[in-house]
Design goal:
By secondary structure, the protein is of the alpha+beta class. It is 21% helix and 52% strand.
């Protein structure tokens, strides 16, 4: 009887594991826009519009995001969001999250010439939290560029 229970438990465990997605590709996370919320000399709170692209054939149920942001190769902001959403299979989803910046070094670099071409490089590094089987976190690292006017809060001229 004991062997039968062990065999049954082992079979159920293997059946559960077979339902897990294997070889998931890392989702792409990028910044769509930034909006200032409140600021003082030491700290800024920003609303960052993020885009998550899911290159996998299974939907990605996200229940949080933890991200560090660099601008012009300087630490810029950190944020943690418990916002839950689902990224469709082979699809994308946008969401807003609040980040806290202690941005003096990055802003000085931007104003001092780091963004003289109208755009500045950024890097996102963090992890998505998910409910996908036994997979609880998916690390990511992405980079791109943003218009300097978005970061400094200036309105862009319409072409």
């Amino acid at each position: 009887m004991r062997k039968q229970l062990l065999w049954l438990a082992g079979s159920l465990a293997l059946a559960g594991c077979s339902a897990l997605p294997i070889n998931l590709e890392t989702p792409e996370v990028s910044v769509v826009g930034i909006r200032g919320l409140e600021a003082n000399f030491f700290e800024q709170r920003l609303e960052v519009r993020m885009l998550v692209k899911n290159p996998n054939a299974v939907e990605l149920p996200v229940n949080g995001l933890d991200v560090d942001v660099e601008l012009a190769e300087e630490p810029f902001a950190k944020g943690i969001s418990a916002h839950e959403f689902v990224v469709p299979a082979n699809g994308e989803a946008e969401f807003d999250m609040i980040v806290t910046a202690n941005a003096a070094n990055a802003i000085l670099k931007i104003v001092g010439g780091g963004g003289q071409h109208g755009e500045i490089g950024y890097k996102l590094k963090g992890k998505l939290s998910t409910h996908l089987g036994l997979l609880r976190t998916i690390p990511f690292e992405e980079s791109g560029t943003l218009p300097v006017s978005d970061i400094l809060g200036k309105k862009r001229k319409k072409d």
